[in-house]
Design a protein that fits this description.
Helices cover 6% and strands 39% of the residues. The protein is mainly beta. Strands 6, 7, 8, 9, 10 and 11 form a six-stranded antiparallel beta sheet that branches.
């Protein structure tokens, strides 16, 4: 049978649970301020928090206190109304400040009688229950006290945390409770009827999903990780007999992962070291901090205290996952809850599955990337059919480092967009399916000419052939029909020759395209190919001899 979701009482620590002030209660002494003569009792079945104050002067030796009083003593006591004078006097105790938030303001304990140790059980582990998982809904207080070590520290133990139970956690690496603790006889029978199976031999009913469980700093298996709201955790469950409103607590808590909805991604962008003097003049401690560049191009401050895995070695370029927060104290954006990701986990760009067809509208140039005109199907009206809208798209500059796109080329390509700006697309993986017609004709005029004031040539080509020819130049002499028919010279890289296996020589008629620059001096010829079948070396030698004979005649 499905259990009903629990309804938590809307009370707080000011609520009066006992109408009859003569009620007899039981509890355990938690703290004693001998200077002011005040003590604190954790009481069984009282209001939320369940702590009451008492005065040492009210203790009678005949009630079992012949050998004095100490923290941890089990007691039985009565209740009396707290006066205004009592409240003001108790507030003077600095030692008892950590109990102020759950101290009753309605009653104080009186007529304390000492019981045998073990008579009062306020917290009882549920031995026959599995490990559970849940989500932190209220952070411990104080929660953010970490700069150097990234952990809870200080004189005040973190308290008042709440976890919402999600369900049993089957993937735990922690052994079952009966392997970690000595299970007392009859522990299962001590469970409330709501947690036991009505039929012997059947599994017991689990704590319902959504149940709230409180926890404190002492319930964490490690204090190196500061729990935040939304963190997922695993834990054991115990019954808290001192808390009537939240009767269950979580203990042996282990952090699983942070709130996934708030996570962002990025890279370690900058990394610095700083030597800082330790606490109380101790040895210097090396501080590590720097900047993270997110996939949204934000630069966020990071500190070693926010790194979840303390054993991870930090390097520039490491891929990380983090939560973006505002550091109001220093007026900056910072990354918190930092975890490291495997290499190549972050995809900064998205590649289209579709292949597009287009035509080069603007050739490769020194200052601008080439442009491709293409048709992209779009819906023109909400209820209408599809239409085609012509668009211009830039080619990613590194896509064709050694191949020139010329106006008129027919191409196929994919589009690529970045996460931070998915509407801005670029053409990548560009393949020329049909080259444009050569627009100019001329004759190879010179070879291996060391031209001056040319742009830097990148020798890191992917092809060994290109590496061999990239640093060699040549000149073509041609008539510029568009420029009034004047004779001009234009330079070219030998790597632009159509086939390195075919020899190029001075006097060879060629056709080519012109790569436009800022001015005519930066123009160069590309896509060179012969307009006749090139002569062999022997044929060229014979031709030179004939020409020489004709000149002599």
């Amino acid at each position: 049978k499905k259990m009903a979701e629990p309804v938590l009482a809307p009370s707080d620590w000011t609520q009066q649970t006992f109408e009859d002030t003569s009620s007899v209660c039981r509890g355990i002494i938690r703290a004693i301020d001998e200077q002011l003569g005040i003590g604190i009792i954790a009481a069984e079945h009282y209001a939320r928090g369940a702590c009451l104050a008492f005065f040492l002067c009210d203790i009678e030796r005949s009630n079992g206190w012949q050998h004095g009083i100490a923290e941890g003593d089990n007691i039985e006591f009565g209740l009396v109304e707290m006066s205004e004078e009592d409240s003001q006097f108790i507030a003077q105790s600095a030692m008892l400040k950590q109990y102020v938030y759950k101290l009753s303001k309605s009653h104080i304990a009186s007529n304390l009688t000492r019981l045998e140790l073990g008579s009062v059980v306020l917290e009882e582990l549920l031995f026959d229950h599995p490990r559970y998982e849940g989500v932190v809904v209220t952070e411990l207080e104080p929660s953010v006290q970490h700069h150097q070590f990234g952990s809870y520290y200080g004189d005040e133990e973190p308290k008042r945390g709440l976890i919402r139970l999600v369900g049993p956690y089957d993937n735990t690496q922690i052994p079952p409770i009966h392997q970690r603790y000595h299970v007392p006889a009859g522990s299962a029978s001590s469970l409330s009827p709501t947690l036991q199976s009505p039929h012997e031999g059947e599994p017991h009913m689990l704590i319902p999903r959504g149940t709230m469980l409180h926890f404190e700093g002492r319930d964490l298996l490690t204090t190196c990780i500061v729990l935040r709201k939304g963190d997922r955790v695993e834990f054991d469950v115990y019954r808290d007999r001192s808390n009537a409103d939240v009767p269950f607590g979580a203990t042996n808590i282990v952090f699983l992962d942070p709130d996934r909805e708030q996570r962002q991604y990025g890279f370690i962008y900058r990394f610095f070291f700083k030597q800082q003097t330790g606490q109380y003049g101790g040895a210097a401690v090396e501080q590590k901090f720097g900047q993270i560049k997110s996939t949204y191009q934000d630069e966020l401050f990071w500190h070693q205290s926010e790194i979840m895995d303390r054993d991870e070695e930090i390097q520039i370029g490491d891929e990380v996952e983090f939560v973006r927060e505002i550091d109001e104290q220093h007026g900056r954006v910072k990354a918190t809850r930092i975890t490291f990701l495997p290499k190549n986990s972050i995809q900064l760009t998205e590649l289209s599955k579709e292949v597009f067809n287009g035509k080069v509208e603007s050739s490769t140039s020194y200052s601008k990337p080439p442009l491709i005109e293409y048709d992209e199907a779009q819906t023109t009206t909400p209820g209408g059919g599809g239409g085609h809208v012509k668009q211009l798209i830039e080619v990613q500059t590194h896509s064709n480092e050694h191949y020139i796109l010329v106006k008129g080329d027919l191409v196929e390509f994919r589009t690529e967009s970045k996460q931070e700006n998915p509407t801005k697309k670029r053409a990548v993986q560009v393949v020329v399916t049909k080259e444009a017609e050569r627009t100019h004709h001329g004759v190879v005029h010179k070879l291996q000419k060391q031209l001056q004031h040319l742009p830097h040539v990148d020798l890191n080509a992917s092809s060994t052939t290109l590496q061999k020819y990239m640093n060699l130049y040549g000149e073509i002499e041609y008539y510029d029909e568009r420029g009034g028919g004047h004779k001009r010279q234009i330079w070219f890289y030998l790597s632009e020759w159509f086939d390195p296996a075919v020899e190029i020589y001075e006097g060879l008629p060629v056709e080519f395209n012109v790569l436009e620059g800022h001015n005519s001096q930066k123009q160069r010829a590309v896509r060179l190919r012969p307009v006749i079948v090139p002569l062999t070396k022997q044929q060229r030698k014979q031709q030179q001899q004939l020409r020489k004979q004709e000149q002599q005649e």
